[in-house]
Amino acid sequence: MFDTVAGLPMHPLVVHAAVVVVPAAALVVGLAGVWPTFRARAAPLALALSALALGLVPVTVRSGDVLRGRLAASELIDRHRDLGAGLLPWVIALVLAAAATVWLRRRETVRARPAGPDGGSDGSRGSAPSPARAPRLVSVVVAVLAVTTAAGAVASVVRIGHSGAEAAWSDVAATTAGPANPR
């Protein structure tokens, strides 16, 4: 299952999905953590994207392990594999941060009780939602968690991607080195 798709190694195909989804999830989680208006609309999206990323990471790592078994030994590939194994904790933390933004969003929205025939005992009419403030410390903790995990996940993806590019292209770069404009 983790070997090839249409004759191509699965790892480069799956990697591209992870390289798009993990940073997208990180961006949405980070923004939802610090921007209440964005959180009101996108907290569920943050959780969905980070959950998708959580599903992609093990598939990407497993497909990389299968591909590694087909290649000659290389320190660059081993470094790439080691860095890749370090992404999962960041993505798990990203899911937790996304769940915290959803929880915070629910806490920020309190539905007023429907008014009775007399307009309600508190003088209000209707059942429109009224925003409630979460304690400031809770909002700050969620924001710090969201931004920290988003930054860690993106930094990890960049380091993994760079090491993967080095491993994949180091031989090509060495054999094609020469003047930029030969005459």
Q: Which residue ranges are poorly predicted, with pLDDT under 50 across at least 5 consecutive positions?
A: none
Amino- and carboxy-terminal Cα gap: 48 Å
**Oligomerization:** single chain
Helix-strand pattern, N to C?
EEHHHHEEH
Give an account of the 3D structure.
The chain has about 180 residues and is mainly alpha-helical. Helix content is about 75%, strand content about 5%. The mean pLDDT is about 85. The strands form two sheets. Strands 1-2 form a two-stranded antiparallel sheet. A two-stranded antiparallel sheet has the order 3-4.
Features:
mainly alpha; two-stranded antiparallel ribbon; two-stranded antiparallel sheet; elongated
In short:
This protein is mainly alpha-helical and 183 residues long. It contains five helices and four strands.
Fold topology:
Layout: E1 4-5, E2 8-9, H1 10-34, H2 36-70, H3 75-85, H4 87-108, E3 109-111, E4 129-131, H5 136-175
Antiparallel strand pairs: 1-2, 3-4
Helix pairs in contact: 1-2, 1-4, 1-5, 2-3, 2-4, 3-5, 4-5
